[in-house]
UniProtKB/TrEMBL annotation:
Keywords: Hydrolase
An annotated Gene Ontology molecular function: hydrolase activity
Lineage: Bacteria, Pseudomonadati, Pseudomonadota, Gammaproteobacteria, Chromatiales
PANTHER family (UniProt xref): PROTEIN ABHD11
AB hydrolase-1 domain ranges (all copies): 16-116
Identification of the protein by name: Alpha/beta fold hydrolase
Amino acid sequence: MELHYREYGSYRAQRPTLVLLHGLLGSSVNWHGIARRLERHWHLLVPDLRNHGRSPHAEPMDYPEMAADLLAFLDRQGLDDAVWVGHSMGGKAAMWLALRWPERAAGLVVVDIAPVPYRHGFDTILTAMEAVDLAAIGSRRQAEGVLARYLDDPGLRQYLLQNLALENGRWRWRVDLQALRRGMGAITGFEPPADSSGYPGPALFLYGSESDYVTAAQRPRILELFPLARLRMIAGAGHWLYAEQPEAFVAALESFLRSAVGGRPRSPADDG
């Protein structure tokens, strides 16, 4: 599978490429603001995961397949490794890849998710999206009206509507809703590769102070699989911490890159 992607900055041998991975029902667009903040100093690749954005639709929708897609993506870019930065579902895909192919991960940054199963349900969200009659609506506003019957949060509705595209005069969801519904058990779960003994490289787990996705009870499991992991809280942020506290997120990320991964921002001499 050939994943669609966005590219920021330019490759420099003295510092690693960053691959940013979005969460469930998101796309590469979600990382645009952060990528623009980082592109002066770093080379970034931001793919759409399978069944999301402009990437192909395919099943199964699980972490082994997502990780295999990403490994093939790295190969097509001609890169031996990268620093993988993943939010939520993207974080789980990055963890699975690092556990299965640690030599392809120069570093790992996991954003507000842990390597554990979750009970968060997405059935109502998928039902709301399926309820939109794509042949009958004439605007995004009409689609939002349908979503509002199921979902009270206007921010969530706007997030979902980023997936609604008008192509050749017809509306369609860019995400494959049926593939996501069939794969939801695998997406909310997490089963590490059977032959993995853990990821021996540098890892940073960032979590929001107002989020319940990463808790003290999960710390032993994180350190079991990622023994060099650092855990850092971003104050005043929920699950979408990179959108809610972008400056703090970028500061934490770049501090990790400098100290643990060995990357350094580009200096003026590099531009000469």
